[in-house]
Amino acid sequence: MHVLITGGTGFIGHALCEHLLQAGHAPSVLTRDPASARARLPAAARVLATLDQARDVEAVVNLAGEPLMAGRWNAARKAEFRRSRLETTQALIAWMARQSARPRVLVSGSAIGYYGPREEEALDESATPGGDFAAQLCRDWETTAMQAEGLDVRTCRVRTGIVLGMDGGALAKMLPPFRLGLGGPMGDGRQWMSWIHRDDLVRMIAWLLDNDRTGGAYNGTAPVPVTNRDFARALGRALHRPAVLPTPAFALKAGVGEMAQLLLTGQRVLPAHALAEGFVFRFPTLETALADLVHR
After folding, report:
1. What mean pLDDT is predicted for residues 269-279?
2. Cα(263)–Cα(184) distance, rounded to whole angstroms?
3. Model-level pTM?
4. Cα(63)–Cα(81) distance, integer angstroms
5. CB contact at 8 A, 2 and 59
6. Angle at the Cα of 71 (from 70 to 72), degrees rounded to 5?
7. Which of 83, 94, 293, 52 is nearest to 195 (CA)?
8. What average pLDDT does range 60-81 have in this prediction?
9. How many CB atoms neighbour CB 223 within 10 A?
10. Where are the alpha helices (DSSP H) in 124-248?
């Protein structure tokens, strides 16, 4: 299968390219920096500078978007968060509409920020969206992607949680202080963390591409979410280090501003749709995921 990927050089996209190649597929990565992409991606992955270079595409994976956790939020960064997601998705929809032979499926990124800050409520894909900035961003991103359905393109929206991998994402940022024994919960630690091993997320995306019966929203999270306090304890155990030094809420707010809300609030998200349709997680619990990642 020829798969066009946006965001293919990122933390998730790079691993997806490798997985697709190993499965015998042909990934093409759309990027603004072809030279850098060729240096980072497997040699067998094709690199495209423009959508017009894409030919005979059978599936699209849309992961493009400026990371929300990359720095303090301000008006300019919020505008870039929206532009990088919505304009890329709109360009993909317009490109699909021009094709005489359209892709069969679009798997488009979103995030569990769709649900907004929640407390103990267990959230499956039928849960209502939130009303904060991150939730509105996810709603608009998904609404744009769903225009592909009007082009008779099967569309799946993956609401990704906290993706765990050693070479990027949230875990890579946590490891240095935890390895020094300086890790611990954020704020009171009672906020829920809905996480997923990167290998499972990549496998879920590939499963959605291959499974013609799938469609709609899917929570890209493991079946067993944990509180932030329990996450810190589990990571400390995996590293054989104490994990009892909390980061006070006021310090996070002073350091990163509005973005601290993503760290101090959470969602208890369950992958009900994927489980109901037969997807099997290799790492359903945090202990199995951390054991694999820390000792890999």
Report:
1. 98
2. 13
3. 0.95
4. 13
5. yes
6. 150
7. 293
8. 90
9. 16
10. 133-145, 169-179, 198-210, 228-239
